[in-house]
């Protein structure tokens, strides 16, 4: 507990835990759910342990009598605990009484939705603002509320962002020495394929086929590539490809393990935007997992093509994954949702649409450059002309050193200076 580094979600939990009777922290394994929840609990029940799971199976009433707040860690190992806690909430258990954590959703388990009783909060790997790179000077919450003036300077540069891509945002993994960290990330992927999939009720007849599909999904990071296209990329020389039902099973299990973090498409009733596409953008929970699946390290991502003076083909996509991960966390704290925009014909794309509950939006483009040019803002300016006052802020997130305002109304923000 002494080494715990406060997370952005802690501010949200400080406000809401005392008001809610039961909350559940959801997210991939090793993201830090238990560390965040345990420091708020008086009693901790770890259902990964047979002895504690059997204790609750034998006497469910313990959940009502143990000193609170009570944390039920890895609740999905005994799905019945969900309904037990739901009933206790219905019986007016004290506010702030229950915390739950889960790194998987029990596929096929017959549980009540918990709507109105158990409130879910998504935990993701560490955002850039939580990684100690410096103090952010530009608030996403203020941007989406129409703030125009920004300033700030950072020494974080391209090489530092590449480092952050490969070290991951998993708190217990990123601090390891390089070789141990790579080994742990590889084991994380292997464990998902060989152990966690079967635990979710999915039989993996060919583990390598699943890993190949995951690698193809990683290669599609930041795109709206069809699932058929991903399957073709995963099985280029296979006469016998996995069936659609098999691939649907892959996606369902990966989603239940919180390893996929697709970005949904933005839709609007604005008549000027009838041509919006509907496909989600593909992202894994952490860009470090995508880098490992694709065999990319810092050196390969930084390698420059002498003819085009461009970095490796995946760097831009993985940088977009890193920024998108961070913006999700900042937006959750601000009670906003995150989408992407792409017209069906591909004429216009905006990487991130951050939408307030009242419908107003901030639009963000993510550019792997230290000095964006006029062309880099053309889709933002198109959107501004198209929807008018509905757009309250437009920004370009970069790898550069300075935050500033351009004459065309676009805010330029280094990724390290953007925070909640």
Write the SSE topology.
Blueprint: H1 8-16, E1 22-26, H2 33-38, E2 43-46, H3 50-58, H4 62-65, E3 70-73, H5 80-90, E4 98-102, E5 118-122, E6 138-139, H6 140-144, H7 158-167, H8 171-174, H9 178-199, H10 207-219, H11 227-234, H12 244-256, H13 287-293, H14 298-302, E7 304-305, E8 310-311, H15 315-333, E9 337-342, E10 349-355, E11 361-366, H16 378-387, E12 391-398, E13 404-405, E14 411-414, E15 418-419
Parallel strand pairs: 1-4, 1-5, 2-3, 3-4, 6-15, 11-12, 12-14
Antiparallel strand pairs: 7-8, 9-10, 10-11, 13-14
Report a brief summary of the structure.
This protein is of the alpha/beta class and 420 residues long.
What structural category characterises the helix and strand content? alpha/beta
Please provide the count of β strands: 15
Strand order of the largest sheet: 9-10-11-12-14-13
CATH H-level superfamily of the domain at 8-122: P-loop containing nucleotide triphosphate hydrolases
What's the mean pLDDT score? 91
Radius of gyration: 22 Å
> What general form does the structure show?
globular
User: Which consecutive residue ranges, at least 5 long each, have pLDDT under 50?
Assistant: none
Helix content: 25-40%
Under CATH, the topology of the domain at 8-122 is which? Rossmann fold
**CATH architecture heading of the domain at 8-122:** 3-Layer(aba) Sandwich
What is the percentage of strand-forming residues? 15-25%
Number of helices: 16
**C-alpha termini separation:** 24 Å
Major beta-sheet overview:
6 strands, mixed
